[in-house]
Amino acid sequence: MTVSVGYASGASASSCGYCSPPGERSSSPSSHHSAGLDAMQLSCPVYQAMIDRGWRRSGTWCYKPDLKKSCCPQYTIKLDALTFEPSKSHRKLLRRWNNHIRHGKPGDVMDVDSSVSGGKQGKSKGLPKFSLTSAIHASESGFHDIERPAHTFETILEPSAFTDEKYALYEKYQQEIHHDTGNTPRGFKRFLVSSPLRGDPIPYSSPPSAHLPKTYGSYHQMYRVDGKLIAMAVLDILPKCVSSVYFMYDKDWEAYSLGKLSAMREACLAREMHEAGAKDMAFLYMGFYIYSCQKMRYKGEYAPSYLADPETYDWYPLAQCKNLLEKNRYACFAHRDHSVEGDFDREDPPPELPSEDDQADIQIVGEIVNGVLLTVPLKNYTAPYSQQELAECIDGLGLELAKQVVFAIY
Ligand SMILES: [Zn+2]
């Protein structure tokens, strides 16, 4: 067994970062969680299974919000990267960006598809069909064949690591965009650099082009214009998806909607990996979709997108979900009658530990001797611990997944 999970408290945060007034907002992204654990090490397939059950990570802290209790339920959303078609306004953003880099002007000139290699010719005669891959790379160094572009634009995908340059961008972003001045390199590392993910090689069918990652895991995607770092995405590359953890940009470039451009670039990355033979790779996960928060609804502008049902974790097309989301505070797509308009009038009983038989298959770290984890089945674990917190973690993971990880109670 190579996977281990450090299990910690499942305490719920009380303040909401989405609907509470500015100033009272918690900077913690983990509001409303009912299950949480600090992961020492996670394999990418295990973490993929976790996010498919509503988990997210912030550094090594993994948490799963309780949608039933939340004033602003957070639904897991995924975009089908293989059939994604940017809207008209998304295409316009791409053209503006490419024209600025190539010609030094923000004008909306339709010329970006013509001189790029790798573009697919469309069925309509004359005009080449829009190609996401071509448009994404049209102004990028190493892809275009313009002799003297107005600016040099490059993106570099590198394993997640701390640099002063990245921290400077983060600090400026937090101050100028979020008006948050209490940042430290240590907090940046904990939140956006450290990761529990351990990546295996990606099974491409043939050697992939140089800009595609070779192993699963946590990455930083650097956006540079004329050598200067102007934006950075924090990404997890998982077996079935590119998962967007965070995106930050220099306010000087605000007019170009880099956040929207990055979402398209990340969807394109998943598509290119799929086309290079990583067959399971097919989605972009953009984190949580929060219908009750107008500012967070932009994630639904990318189509076709799907929401995970909060009870069965089956996927439902976003368009089908909107009616239920509009009418209810808590929406269940699989069992529509489980949806609730206001607050719950009764408390669900807290989850209980699984049966003795199942407890025999759940591993707990007994002690660490010379760096080796010695585990005991939960059934035989005798030290005192909070049964309710562990029960919430096991319930959040589901039994199948809970049996694939090692819990460390501290
Ligand atoms: Zn709220």
UniProtKB/TrEMBL annotation:
MF terms in GO: arginyl-tRNA--protein transferase activity
Any Gene Ontology CC annotation: cytoplasm
Keyword rRNA processing: no
Residue ranges of the region described as Disordered: 105-127
Pfam family, one: ATE_N
Domain N-end rule aminoacyl transferase C-terminal: 165-308
Keyword Acyltransferase: yes
Biased segments, Low complexity type: 114-127
Key words, A-Z: Acyltransferase, Transferase, Ubl conjugation pathway
All residue ranges annotated as the N-end aminoacyl transferase N-terminal domain in the record: 14-92
Reaction(s) catalysed by this chain's protein: an N-terminal L-alpha-aminoacyl-[protein] + L-arginyl-tRNA(Arg) = an N-terminal L-arginyl-L-aminoacyl-[protein] + tRNA(Arg) + H(+)
Entries under SUPFAM superfamilies matching the protein: Acyl-CoA N-acyltransferases (Nat)
EC number: 2.3.2.8
Family membership: Belongs to the R-transferase family.
Primary role: Involved in the post-translational conjugation of arginine to the N-terminal aspartate or glutamate of a protein. This arginylation is required for degradation of the protein via the ubiquitin pathway.
Protein name: Arginyl-tRNA--protein transferase 1
Source organism of the structure: Schizophyllum amplum
